[in-house]
Amino acid sequence: EAEVAQSPRYKITEKSQAVAFWCDPISGHATLYWYRQILGQGPELLVQFQDESVVDDSQLPKDRFSAERLKGVDSTLKIQPAELGDSAMYLCASSLRDREYEQFFGPGTRLTVL
Amino acid sequence: EDKVVQSPLSLVVHEGDTVTLNCSYEVTNFRSLLWYKQEKKAPTFLFMLTSSGIEKKSGRLSSILDKKELFSILNITATQTGDSAVYLCAVEIANSGYALNFGKGTSLLVTP
């Protein structure tokens, strides 16, 4: 069964360092999302892509976060410099065009900033 | 500001009990309400609700939406230990990207 792939699964870094997360959506899914989930809370949307274009990045802290999906397939989320408060699970999800309600989530990357 | 509020935040029941989880919302441009189940991994889709009063059912789980009172409930009957999870409610907003706004979730523990 097709799945959303993410790597790494776990990342430990020191504050002020740069980190990058990778996501490969299900083949054919035009829409890709990055969420951040802090322990005990629901996922919070950071950025949404439709193909290679950003549709919504209103909640992305642009001073330190960046995301790209250059060829409209896989995507990278970067944080530079990382801060203690960035410790969270970073989830990637994808969906078919016009079926945004049915988002398939990847396993996530657990980030710990020391 | 768009809000999705779930209650209770946590719940402990015995196997066989019936539980009702609540989700209320205040959003602009409502499109749909969704329920997800999250075990120790990423959320998995349960239901999507768009119309008031129409119950969606899957096995022991069912859900209904009230668009007038702006809430939804998720019912689980004859609970099993495998139902232990965090249940997330999300509201899909019809802006440029149909983003999902998630509630904080209800943590359900079903004991044997």
Structure write-up:
The complex is a heterodimer of chains A (114) and B (112). Chain A is mostly beta strands and 114 residues long. Chain A has strands at 5-7, 10-13, 19-24, 31-37, 44-50, 53-56, 65-68, 75-79, 88-95, 104-105, 109-113. Chain A has no helices and eleven strands. In chain A, strands 2, 4, 5, 6, 9, 10 and 11 form a seven-stranded mixed β-sheet that branches. Chain A is globular and about 40 Å long. With 112 residues, chain B is mainly β. The model of chain B has no long low-confidence stretch (mean pLDDT 92). Chains A and B meet through strand 5 and strand 10 of A and strand 5, strand 9 and strand 10 of B.
- Stretches of chain B where pLDDT is under 50 for at least 5 consecutive residues are none
Rg measurement of chain A, Å: 13 Å
Profile the largest sheet of chain A: 7 strands, mixed
- Strand content of the residues of chain B, in percent? over 45%
* Count of DSSP strands of chain A: 11
Give the biggest sheet of chain B.
Answer: 6 strands, mixed
Distance between the termini of chain B: 41 Å
Helix content of chain B: under 10%
Brief descriptors of the model:
heterodimer, A: 114 residues, mainly beta, seven-stranded mixed β-sheet, four-stranded antiparallel β-sheet, B: 112 residues, six-stranded mixed β-sheet
